[in-house]
Amino acid sequence: AMPSRTLLLVLVCAASGWAERQQAPQAADDGGAGGKATGNATPPLDQPQLWFAPWFSSPALRAQMKERLLRGDVVHVRNALQPPIALAAERELWAAENDFHQRDAHRKGFQFYHKALELENLQNRTKYPTLLGLDMLFESLQMKQWASDLSNFSCFQETQQSFSWFRPLDYLSPHSDHQHDTADRVLAFVLHLTRKWKPEYGGDFVWLAPLYHHHPAFNSLTLFLVSDATEHMVTSVSPHADPANFRRFAMAGWWRTLQSKAWLERSSTQLLTAARSGLCASPLPADHILGLQGLGAYEMPFGDLSEPDAHGWDMGFEDL
């Protein structure tokens, strides 16, 4: 069940006419076995509004997102990227099968097991133009400014990000993303890039305080401010998710700060206090800044152009 503080916002997106023009083909035709990366030109990196769907350019929506983030909520944006870009990224992830490497951890209190694609480690990363473009976009000055505006922290440190592939039985155990040795991670993001992923396949993004399941719907973007209270996990992928036809791909990372080491032991209360008195000249009123003890989830769906998400966790989500 969704938390009581969850607010559902339904907007008629200007991109709604793309549903017919950009209908995703079957996996075997483009993103499945034998799929090939596209060579389409990507938009300029200094114009992120051309990469994202129209929600990105709305000051009103940005203000709502910021308010929810500063409350300590996790925010989910449906149809985050322009559909052709999201589709091209998924195709390239299928084509990059042999460039993924195994990542795992098995220490007390934290374990994970999945594959990762880190473009900086590839000699010929230009063969994936859309993935490279996304990697550079999230590192761009414009996106760092956007993250700074949303978080009220200066997020101009180098961005950390990579692409992941969760195969059957892969998982990520509960963790907060907060690192006490550096504490420089401010705004976390997860961009889900798997079409036709069924709820019964698992691989959910699960927010643990309070418990909330987010189905990794294609082209959805998850955002949250990192603190010691932002516990979350990825559930194990079911063996019934045949990797020949279905692969759970995502891009994840953090915008980071160069601000004082005073944030080394940043707690949930310190985080929101700092955010409230951060970069912005007009921070939110005190009564808008809530403690992280009752973290909620904020859905911003604009109609999923590729697949209905009728798993029941979107509080009456409505296709537009």
Provide an overview of this structure:
- Helix 3 (83-95) crosses helix 4.
- Strands 1, 2, 3, 4, 5, 6, 7, 8, 9, 10, 11, 12 and 13 form a 13-stranded mixed sheet that branches.
- The chain has six helices and 13 strands.
- By secondary structure, the protein is of the alpha+beta class.
- Mean pLDDT is 73; it is low at 1-31, 33-39 and 278-320.
- It is globular, with a radius of gyration of 19 Å.
Describe this protein with a few key phrases.
320 residues; alpha+beta; 13-stranded mixed sheet; 6 helices; 22% strand; globular; disordered N terminus
Structural class assignment: alpha+beta
Task: Provide the succession of SSEs.
Answer: EHHEHEEHHEEEEEEEEHE
The number of helical elements comes to 6
Average pLDDT reading: 73
SSE arrangement:
Elements: E1 7-8, H1 18-21, H2 59-71, E2 74-77, H3 83-95, E3 101-107, E4 110-117, H4 129-139, H5 141-151, E5 160-166, E6 171-175, E7 185-192, E8 205-208, E9 211-214, E10 221-225, E11 232-234, E12 248-256, H6 268-276, E13 297-300
Parallel strand pairs: 1-13, 2-13
Antiparallel strand pairs: 2-10, 3-4, 4-5, 4-6, 5-12, 6-11, 7-10, 7-12, 8-9, 8-11
Helix pairs in contact: 3-4
Structure, briefly:
By secondary structure, the protein is of the alpha+beta class. Helix content is 19%, strand content 22%. Helix 3 crosses helix 4.
